[in-house]
Amino acid sequence: MTGTMTAAVPRTLQAAVELRGVSRTYGSGTAAVRAVDRVDVGFPRGTWTAVMGPSGSGKSTLLHCAAGLERVDSGQVLLGGTDITSAGDADLTALRRDRIGFVFQSFNLIGSLTAEQNVALPLRLAGRRPAKAEVRAVLAAVGLGDRTRHRPRELSGGQQQRVAIARAMVTRPEVLFADEPTGALDSTAARTVLDQLRAMVDSGQTIVMVTHDPAAAARADAALFLRDGRLVDRLVHPTARAVADRLVALEG
């Protein structure tokens, strides 16, 4: 089923994250590049949204702005209705630690730590002493209950990505952002990771995922399409074929 060209969430619905007129420019003068250009979009609670578009369309920048990893030049970013646009560095650090989870394509695990220790790290950085049972329960939830003492080099790519997801889950964030979470995985590992993300959404989690893969986007509830930093289209209940057709049209 195809949605309308606008991707804004109606104001009557509570968005987990909302961007209002957000722009982000790199460089200055004739070298300036507007990576995100006056984007209005909301991501409803308990949904999974895929963000797509040609290379250089602003996908990752949009994700980073929404997650508070980059500051916007103009507009507003709201998390659960709270304006975080002008939050200071300390507040943003606490925000990313307590209310936001982020999964990167490159996993970003610490090689000297076990899976259990990697997952516990965000809690320790927050000044908590995590219970082993709590950490192991999260690893078990991603199918790695028998890999708690393994270090990253002892795990496959798919297993490492699941550790990264468990690390993002352990703080119970309001929103999980994922930047190409299956981009470095083979098809079997990618399917396992996508199954886990789907299970998280079905249990009430909100996920915003950048991907270039139509099959991955087809697992989401909606797909948004960017071109030249602008939001140009939206599909509800996307299929891989419909997503692929839209990407071809955008790149053409």
From TrEMBL:
SUPFAM superfamilies with a match to the protein in the record: P-loop containing nucleoside triphosphate hydrolases (SSF52540)
- Which keywords does this chain's UniProt record carry? ATP-binding, Nucleotide-binding, Transport
ABC transporter domain: from which residue to which, for each copy?
17-251
Q: One MF term in GO for this entry?
A: ATP binding
Keyword check for Transferase, yes or no.
Answer: no
Listed Pfam families: ABC_tran
Protein name listed in UniProt: ABC transporter ATP-binding protein
State the organism named in the record: Pseudonocardia aurantiaca
